[in-house]
Every structure is written in C-alpha cells, then in structure tokens.
From TrEMBL:
Protein's name according to its UniProt entry: FYVE-type domain-containing protein
Gene3D superfamilies: Zinc/RING finger domain, C3HC4 (zinc finger)
Domain FYVE-type: 50-110
PROSITE patterns referenced in this protein's UniProt entry, alphabetically: ZF_FYVE
Pfam families listed in its UniProt record: FYVE
UniProt keyword Protein biosynthesis, yes or no: no
Keyword field: Metal-binding, Zinc, Zinc-finger
InterPro entries assigned: FYVE-type_Zinc_Finger (IPR052113), Znf_FYVE (IPR000306), Znf_FYVE-rel (IPR017455), Znf_FYVE_PHD (IPR011011), Znf_RING/FYVE/PHD (IPR013083)
Region (Disordered): 1-21
GO molecular function per UniProt: zinc ion binding
Length: 285
C-alpha cells in the first residue's frame, strides 16, 4: 500500500497501513495539495466568463458579430478564432478527445501527452528491481507516486511487500544513466542510487520513461520561469505607467501653481497701473 508525504531524499515515508480508507484519504489530500506536481492529473479549468471580455486575450482584437469569442479548453481563456486554431487532446486534464486550444496550451499539450500516454502508466504500474546499498542488496518494488520514485522491499516468491516505504523526490534527481547490463543510476545531490532490472528491456523502458519525466520537469520549470518573467514585466509596466501618471500629476500641479501666481501678479500690476500706485519698496532704517 503506497501512502507518502514528501520529504528529504530517501527519507522513510509512511509505513504501510492496515486501513485502506485512511491511506486513500491521505493520498486524496496529497493530490489536492500538489495538483501541479509532475505526473499528477488535474481537472479542466473553469471557463472565464465571456460576458465582460471585450477583446481577445492574445491579439487584443475587439469581438464583434464576425470576430466571435472562443474558449481555450486548456486554460479557460477567451480568444478569437485566429488565436485558437489548434485542436488536440490534453491528457493531463483528462481530455481524451480533440478540443479547441490556444497556441501556448497546444504546445504544452503536445509535449505532455507523450509522457502521460506512454511513460507515466509504466512508471505508475511499477516494476521489481534489485537495489544496491553500501553493504547489502535487496529486491524492491519501485513505482512512481505523485512526483516521487518510491520503493519498498518485496518477496518475489509471494509478491508481498514489507518494510518501510522510502522515496526519492524526483525534483532532486539530477541525472539518469545506464550501468552494467540491466542497471541504472539515479543521481541526487546526496546519493547515487543503483537499480538493476530483471532484464535490459525493462531497464531501457524505465530509463526512457524517467528521462522523459526529467525533460518534462525541465519544461515545467522553464514554463514557470517564463510565466514569472512575463508577470514581472507586466507589473513593471504597470508600475511605470503609475509612476508616469504621478509625475504628470505633479507637473500639472506645478504648472497650475505657476499659472495662478502669474495671474495674481498680473492682476496686482493692473491695479497699480489703474490707481497710479508705485511698486512697494523696502527701505532701510
């Protein structure tokens, strides 16, 4: 029974529980809290209400009778037909038939679908490996659970799991390399884990799947960085606009004060000229 709370590299996880209901509840909470973790599934986004959307979110062209509104099923945004020309599956969201997508969502789906269709089922099904430690080697059952590579001792004769579940958070894995005839190395900052499969074919399948997961993680990190940079750029643009507005207000305020002083001075001079008054001068004692 697999029930895990993410921690440090190869730290003991939750020991196998006798209560399937308790484990199921814990896993549901974990999935809810980590909906963006690599290898987890999500629900389609809530559509943005198009009633108050006047223009396309991408090209900003105004909507009218001919330029109609369309929702992207990947992000829920409102776009024009030109900016949502793509259609495809989004397996991460459980969308197994072709749906309308915007450009960025189509690119993401194209990269993610291969992992979710081919590699993730293999990793989630698990496989038996021999894990080498410092002093001993043991047979373990390895599987992917919510962005971690988890393993537990197994009796291959009875197919019974025993002992504590341990886990390697996938975001700590820096490299994946083959070793020997049917082995592979999972390298983390603190340790190099060696797993030997029953045959080279299984090793190759797992190595390919884990490398695909590593590429997906790098893609996600790049995507988050780009989104963060875009958000920071927008915030900077908005801040610049506000600062320019404040400077403009100050300039108008200064101009109005100067204009008022000039008008007052002009009125005083007009009154002096009208009544023949000299300009007031200050004399010493």
């Amino acid at each position: 029974m697999w029930c895990f709370n993410p921690g440090n590299d190869e730290q003991p996880s939750v020991a196998p529980s006798s209560s399937a209901r308790h484990c199921s509840s814990s896993m549901e909470k974990l999935r809810s809290a980590n909906k963006n973790v690599l290898g987890t599934y999500d629900t389609p986004p809530t559509w943005v209400s198009d009633e108050s959307i006047p223009s396309c979110a991408a090209c900003h062209d105004d909507f009218d009778l001919f330029n109609r509104k369309h929702h992207c099923r990947g992000c829920g945004g409102v776009f024009c037909g030109t900016c949502t020309p793509h259609s495809g599956k989004v397996l991460k969201l459980g969308l197994t038939t072709d749906v309308r997508l915007c450009g960025p969502c189509a690119t993401s789906a194209q990269r993610e679908n291969g992992f979710y269709a081919r590699h993730l089922p293999l990793l989630e099904a698990g496989a038996v490996f021999v894990k080498y430690g410092f002093l001993v080697e043991r047979t373990v059952f390895v599987k992917w659970v919510d962005g971690t590579v988890q393993y537990q001792s197994i009796n291959v004769m009875s197919n019974v799991l025993s002992g504590i579940v341990k886990a390697i958070p996938f975001d700590t894995i820096s490299s994946l390399t083959p070793v020997g005839v049917s082995g592979l190395y999972l390298t983390t900052p603190s340790q190099q884990h060696r797993l030997d499969a029953a045959d080279p074919h299984i090793r190759d399948l797992w190595l390919q799947a884990l490398r695909s997961a590593l590429e997906m993680r790098q893609f996600q990190v790049q995507k988050i960085e780009e989104e963060t940079a875009a958000r920071v750029a927008l915030e900077h643009q908005e801040m610049t606009r506000v600062m320019i507005g404040l400077e403009s207000i100050e300039l108008r305020k200064t101009h109005m004060q100067q204009t008022r002083l000039e008008k007052n001075q002009s009125r005083r001079e007009a009154l002096r000229a009208k009544y023949g008054l000299d300009v007031a001068t200050t004399t010493g004692p």
